[in-house]
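Protocol step 4 of 6: structure prediction from sequence.
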Amino acid sequence: MIKYSFKCSNGHEFDSWIQSVDALDKLKTSGMISCAICGDKKVERALMSPQVRPAKNKAKRKDNRPLSGPLTTAEQAFMELRAKIEANTEDVGSNFAKEARAIHEGEAEERGIRGKATVKEVKTLVEDGVSITPLPWADRKTN
């Protein structure tokens, strides 16, 4: 398997593992390669740097960039989405299920909320027709 870097015509950069150079050619000619972020079919191989093993004492990302390095387009978009959601919702913590139900039943002010719920609480809310959406991140643990 070979790890290739790609860039679409919209400027998105992403990586993908491809079985071989021949497999890459077949995928390109069949139009089966598209941008992992926006779906654009105009994808070209991006410049790739050789994989050099970093010093053991330096923190690195999985893609070998320093943790303090610039964010990818996808990382930036995700951070902006998270900031927008957090700015426009109220964190109700572990009271999420109770508060969501109260809003649904008209017993509490209608507003955007976020928080934590058990699998059982989520299942019950969904079964009762309460509209909820899981957020694609977990709270960071602090020391």
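Step 5 (inspection) to follow. The helical segments are 21-29, 73-87, 96-104, 119-127.
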